[in-house]
Amino acid sequence: MAGFYFVRPSSLCRMQWFVCFLPSVLLVCGASLCPCERPELCQQIRPHRDFEVFVFDVGGKMWKSYDWSIVTTVATFGKYDAELMCFAHSKGARVVLKGDVPLTHIVDRDNRTAWIMEKVNLAKSQFMDGINLDIEQAVDEGSPEYQALTELVKETTEAFHREIPGSQVSFDVAWSPKCIDKRCYDYVSIANSCDLLFVMSYDEQSQILGDCIAMANAPINQTLNAYEQYLNLKIDPKKLVMGVPWYGYDYPCLNLSQEGICSITKVPFRGAPCSDAAGKQKAYSWIMKQVNSSLTGRLWDSKQQAPYFNYEDKNGQIHQVWFDDPESICSKANAVKSKGLRGIGMWNGNILDYSDEPVARQQTAAMWNALLGC
Ligand SMILES: *[C@@H]1O[C@H](CO)[C@@H](O)[C@H](O)[C@H]1NC(C)=O
Ligand SMILES: *[C@@H]1O[C@H](CO)[C@@H](O)[C@H](O)[C@H]1NC(C)=O
Ligand SMILES: *[C@@H]1O[C@H](CO)[C@@H](O)[C@H](O)[C@H]1NC(C)=O
Ligand SMILES: *[C@@H]1O[C@H](CO)[C@@H](O)[C@H](O)[C@H]1NC(C)=O
């Protein structure tokens, strides 16, 4: 960060370089420096739009190809990119920080307050519009960490709303509130105290209790039933943003049955005997290249409402790849509308093929369009 200001100092800072030089007042100076072409682009976004399209960005310049006619929030999980901030603001979209901290560190109240203030100050100095809390740690119900997490979300939201009017605080939750991956959080209090929950409706095979076989990343019924679980807790549907995967899983098959069932290696995870960790996550751009040279071409599983295919690698190993595409995403996006949720988003925005190839352009546009249903 500091380096950035020294490389491209504003005239104000150039005149007062000696002030900037003192680390203790760097923040003060930094806060007055807008890196955008027009200073008003540094103003944080205040209006709330009815329908959220929440994008995770993991770095690089792919964001230039996003569909900015629909993006409302970008959670920046890559390096700080002032150009992205300025551009998003020019489109009326929020840019939010990533927030993660070991929960054992913030059981202590002073430590928690210090962490929150550090994030608020960082957001201010970078002209950001909030924070996405991505704390995917295992927590036991009623433990000190359980209480501390609930407090963290509440206090973070209060601090951001107070210090940056109009800012947004979101919290990432697993696809179901039922202690998935041992994340036994106080979902109701957390939902009530922040602006929205980003429901990660993917990695739904992280704890396979039945047969150890390759399955869809986010089967339709399992995905949608879990929203009913959130809503049954009396969580406001307008607090829920559905997260869909723009990636799939590539599983090496131990055995591929006549019926096309791919058995997978047992890799235990948080108490379950097998998990999707037996496979590798693959970007949609990779999947779309692989499917044409596969053994089967794109197949469709009507129960899980998901596409998949089998391919043979250069060592003769058979793989089964499960993914989401516009067809599987459409039915989920339709449910966002019918359940009256706050919006939709994806992990992650970067992993489409944004090249100029006509086929890629068409596939990429279809993925963005699918977010709005069909
Ligand atoms: C406070 O946070 C720091 C890390 O920022 C950690 O090393 C320390 O153990 C924490 N203290 C307590 C009492 O939790
Ligand atoms: C592998 O699949 C074949 C064909 O469906 C089946 O006959 C065989 O029992 C399977 N082997 C194992 C180890 O599951
Ligand atoms: C894959 O095959 C489909 C259908 O034949 C075709 O439309 C598409 O252009 C191919 N994609 C690539 C990347 O070659
Ligand atoms: C999925 O849900 C639909 C509608 O609720 C139901 O008819 C169907 O049997 C379910 N499928 C599976 C595989 O559970």
Automatic annotation (TrEMBL):
Start and end residues of each GH18 domain: 1-374
Entry-linked Pfam families: Glyco_hydro_18 (PF00704)
Protein location: Lysosome
Recorded GO CC terms: extracellular space; lysosome
Predominant subcellular localization, coarse grouping: other
Taxonomic superkingdom: Eukaryota
Cited SMART domains: Glyco_18
MF (Gene Ontology): chitin binding; chitinase activity
Keywords linked to the UniProt accession: Glycoprotein, Glycosidase, Hydrolase, Lysosome, Signal
Span of the signal peptide: 1-27
Key word Glycoprotein present: yes
GO BP term, pick one: chitin catabolic process
Keyword Transferase assigned: no
Record SUPFAM superfamilies: (Trans)glycosidases
Family named by the database record: Belongs to the glycosyl hydrolase 18 family.
Cited function: Involved in the degradation of asparagine-linked glycoproteins. Hydrolyze of N-acetyl-beta-D-glucosamine (1-4)N-acetylglucosamine chitobiose core from the reducing end of the bond, it requires prior cleavage by glycosylasparaginase.
Name listed for the protein in its UniProt record: Di-N-acetylchitobiase
Annotated organism of origin: Sphaeramia orbicularis
Recorded name of the encoding gene: ctbs
